[in-house]
Amino acid sequence: MMLLSSYITSVLIITVFATISSGNIEHTVLRGVPSSLQSKYAQLKSFACLDGSSTIPFEYVNDDYCDCRDGSDEPGTSACPNGRFFCENKGYIGTSIPSHLVGDGICDCCDGSDEYETSVVCNNTCFELAQKSRAEHEARRILHEVGVAKKKDIMVKSIVAVSARKARLLELEQELQTIDNELKEKEALKQLAEAPESEAKEKHQKLWEEQRAIREAIAHDNQMREMFADIDTNNDSLVSIEELQKHTELDTDQENEFTVEEVRSILGADSVNLDEFNVTVFEQISNSYQKLPQPSTEAATHLEEVTEKIDEALKQEEEKKTTTTSGTEGYYEEDTNHHHDDDSDHHHHDEDADHHHDEDADHHHHEETITTVATSLDHGKHIHDDTVPQYDDETKKLMEIADHARNEYNEVERKVHDVKRQIEDLRKQADVDVGSHGEYSAFMDQCFDYDEREYTYRVCMFKDAKQISKGGGSDVTIGYWDAWTGPSDNKYLKMKYANGATCWNGPARSLTITFQCGVDHKIIDVREPTRCEYSMLFETPSACDEKIATTIIHPNHEEF
Ligand code: MAN
């Protein structure tokens, strides 16, 4: 009995732990069972289905009849539709295939173990596959090794750059303090220089305005006197109704006669003297008034005499005003010059204009009488001449001093701005996350282009990304620097540029860059998998992995 049972056991062991010699294929484990589950199949009396649904006699395992619901009793046959067959693939990587592929006449396992019971002869390709895989792994490892060397270089440079930046920042902050103080000093000096300057300029302006007012008043007076003399044809120093009545242009009602009553209502009396004319009549008629045709020679001589008298009176008045305004010589002299220049133009243009001739005659007359004082009688010109005369030498000197102080202040202010901008730039740079060890610091201020059929894509690291149409038209911003968005265990695998130009009827454009190890920094692909959401594949040494670079797979590595 003992002998029989030990015989049966031996037969079972031989059946289950078949050592197959089919080609070079050799099984040392229970057929179709991965080594991790071998212990579950070690009992020789009974087998518990792996899902725990039932327990069956051990001889039912791999008996080509499906007993367990999960198919776990038939790991080495195709009996269970949901079963998995484990190819041991010795020398390579063990794989699990659906058990219905077992014995189907096609070699699915590289060791051919799935076809153990068919006549198909499977070549064992596990060795070849292992070799290929090892070569691939080695190529990858070398890539990472070269990349890591470059990455380390970048990291070292980053450390140097960070400390240089810190030192520069300190230097700039100190410089800012110094030039800020300098700026305060320059500002005080500027204010000191500007106060007398603006005082002198104001004085100049005031003086100019006063003079203009005087000129205007004199011009007004002159005009009034000329008009009075012109109307007073009998030279009795009175303007009578009869005299004014000749000026029919003053008749507001041109259809009818210019009646005595109408004239009286203008004069307010039967006749008016110069003062009354000035107060009540002049303003009323000055707009419509026109000179009568040339007076007789006698009258003209008389008019000249009267004008001379008036001129003399005006000259005295003007001189009086000039002496009461101290330091104004410059103004008048300049003004007189100005006047001369204007006059020469005047003559030139008015040569053949008769009605201007009289005015010109007046002009000459006044120039002769008044030489050192800007003549008010040249009213037509001065009233409308609003050009402020040149500043006097003292004011000019003050302006020069103030200009100098302003220039000095501006120069220091420019320096302050420049230093502040540099500080700001450096602080912004320091705020950029360039990797946990500065491995992405080489990207700082760098842009990269990628050409495809329709567009050039340009990414300026930590700034923005653009889509530049090759057919012309304006660039489209597809995102502004947003954040690193890789998974929590590899944050620096991806970066995102968000809030780009909004798509018509769609989202704001955005770009995600995925980094992979490469010897150089370069974009290798850009796509738009979803409308207006772009994805870029970017090779860079910064993404190379030291672990991969140092993991050498030996031919006998257990993985294979
Ligand atoms: C442009 C480009 C495309 C984008 C469409 C959306 O043509 O920016 O990439 O898909 O606009 O309208």
UniProtKB/TrEMBL annotation:
One of its GO terms (molecular function) is calcium ion binding. Residues 312-322, 335-368 have a biased composition (Basic and acidic residues). Residues 162-192, 395-429 form a coiled coil. Keywords: Coiled coil, Disulfide bond, Endoplasmic reticulum, Signal. InterPro entries: EF_hand_dom, Gtb1-like, LDL_receptor-like_sf, LDrepeatLR_classA_rpt, Man6P_isomerase_rcpt-bd_dom_sf, MRH_dom, PRKCSH, PRKCSH_N. Residues 219-254 form the EF-hand domain. GO terms for cellular component: glucosidase II complex. Pfam families: PRKCSH-like, PRKCSH_1. Residues 445-546 form the MRH domain. It comes from the Eukaryota. Gene3D superfamilies: Low-density Lipoprotein Receptor, Mannose-6-phosphate receptor binding domain. One of its GO terms (biological process) is N-glycan processing. Residues 1-18 form the signal peptide. Residues 312-368 are annotated as: Disordered. Transmembrane segments: none annotated. SUPFAM superfamilies: LDL receptor-like module, Mannose 6-phosphate receptor domain. This is Glucosidase 2 subunit beta. It comes from Rotaria socialis.
